[in-house]
Specification:
The chain is mostly beta strands. The protein is 0% helix and 48% strand. The chain has a single domain (7-79), classed as Archaeosine Trna-guanine Transglycosylase, Chain: A, domain 4 (Roll). The chain has strands at 7-10, 14-20, 34-39, 49-61, 69-79. A hairpin with a 3-residue loop joins strand 1 and strand 2 (14-20).
Amino acid sequence: MAYQFKIWNVASRSMCVLVKEDSEILSRLKVGEILNMKYYAHNRTSPTTCLETAIRHITRDDHGRFKGHYLVGLEIITESVPRSN
């Protein structure tokens, strides 16, 4: 199954994606897991890039801006060759 997320750069947590607390994908994500993720630029004419990305933390936000969501912290491990859209 493919999922699409917007990347957030939250100062206190660095790069992450938001996942709703009731999303079925949440149970499939594990800290330390390495995923091959496809990244799209804001500019649609730029090529997509596939990057090995590690899950560094999964943190529930109970009181902040993203209440009702988990912040899934990501770290890019290696970069592969850009691909055209």
